[in-house]
Amino acid sequence: MDPATVLPMMAVGYLITISIETPVLLIGVSSRHPIRNRLFAGAWLTACTYPVVWLVLPQWIDTGSQRTLYLAIAETFAPVAECFLFWLAFGKTEPRTRGATLQDMVAVTVANLASFAFGEVFSDWIWRTGP
Amino acid sequence: MRYTLTVVLAAFGLSLLPVQVRADVPPPVPAPKDVKFTIEVDEKAKGPKLILPVGMTRAQFRPRPVPKANPAKEKEPVAMLEIEGDDEVAPAPRNPNHLMIAGIGMTLALGFGGVWLVRRPGRGGSRGLVLLLVAGVTLAATTVVWANAPAPPPPPKKDKIVLPVAFEGNVNLEVVVAGDSIRLILDKETLEKIKKDHK
Amino acid sequence: MSTAALDQPRTLSSGLPLASGLIALAISAAVLAGRMPIAFSIATVFLFAGPHNWLEARYILGRLPARAGKLWSFFTVSLVGIVGLTAAFAYIPSYLGRPSAILEADSLYAGWNTAFLLWAATLVWMRSRTNPRFDGGWVWPLAFLLIAGVWLRPFALSVALVYLHPLMALWLLDRELRRSHPAWRPAYHACLLAIPLLMGLLFWRLHDALPLISDDPVSLAIAQHAGDWYLTGISNHFLVAAHTFLETVHYGVWIILIPLVGYRSKPWQLDTIPVARRGGGWRTGVIALLLIGLLLVSVLWVCFALDYGTTRYVYFVVALLHVLAEGPFLLRMI
Q1: ipTM of the complex model
Q2: Window B:55-84, CB contacts with C under 8 Å
């Protein structure tokens, strides 16, 4: 994997991903979080997990022949890690209720699923129509 | 001040990353030059040995070490090997583990950085978001700039002259700090073989 | 710190002698380095490399506390890092020369740089937890970001350190002035601008100059030290001149300016060395250390005279010890 190819692609992919996930987080996380923190989380959470998904996991799993396994691990890792980071950074924001925390975790997971679904649909469209 | 410094440092660190696009530009191929060269015969030697003073090669500190397994090279005669010794500027295959470790480093940097920005005492306003945006814009801008950099010019083509092979085999290469001459030490067996092959 | 020093007005004219000295030093270094980079590099390293190390060691001894006390963990981590990183750095070339070497140069230097960055970050973190405290949370993200960069470009940090290390002396001088002559700092800060200005001037005149062409091993080693194998887009004339300029300024700071403003006595007077004041074996130990240092300076001169190239190579590997030692020392002065 050549960094000269991967890094620019990763940067573009990152910008697309946060443009999907940030609106979901803006709407989805509990109302205890100010808009500033929601925007920050939208850009930050993906930035943290993206290098693992793009640079680390492909060294262990062949993204071509083992695509299903790769997607399963990557799309499990990303929401779990992002939920943990969100909780670490903003979990103590008042009022701390179980419902609010659960809502935050669901929002982070849904944001990840949304970007994953978009990615799959986009890939499929590229595959069908050609670049 | 500390905030500005952090932004500048973060931008600098990020600007390092996409520069990889140009990092594969090899150093210029050195011009051919005459160097002192001696062939010595050591009857006690266990095999041929090539002694190269470090001042006459920069291979030791070059960022691109010569690939170890290169069957094509191994077949070349000694005489050719030493002439082309400094021309080893082709990019070596990149170690994929480097990218993986870099990825872990990025994740840890961004993870620790975000938590620090959010949880540090007396954090003000939207500094964290601004910092992240600045870092993101720097990353995107440098990526675009470097990704659009023109491809390096191809190395000049050299017509290789095929010479009769005087010796074919392995040679023990030793880089020494001192000296101003390349020394080829031949063991008795190799010398006899060369003599015999050229009779 | 004397109250007289604190009472002095903080005007530009207060530190005029120091500022003039630094400006004169920087201009002469830039002119000589630009005109005759190789010869000046050879001369400056030959003359000043050893003495500057001795004076630096003497200065550090004068500032170290007599007892580590609560700082023992900081000093232990510092010492382990200084010795371990220097030994590892010295070992890398011999490892690479072995036929059995498995790791390649880029992996080894990236690994070394990673260890160096983690060590430095640990020290900053530890320092931030002792008085006067500061928020050191930024150090880990910065360290990991640099580590990521190091694995993408394994030699970039090593080359950067070659140019950044000479600037450490200027930073240490600033810390020393804050402690002993705060009134001189405005003038000092103003004349520090001369360094980037002169660097810019050297770049303007030499960035596209004809390359320094010489086949002798010493010239090649000097150009290599300045990173011409890495920064291939710039004339190595500029690189060697810039490195020699910074190196000379750094020698000047350690040999002339810091002893003038930072020593509270003559270098051979041991009363201002806290460890020596503990008496008994400690005093003897300090005397022995300083005498051995003087002997090493003399031996270095003899070795330079006998075989400059080899001595220079060995010196710069061993000299990493003092480069690394400046880090923790600077941190204690912040």
Answers
A1: 0.88
A2: 55-56, 58, 60-65
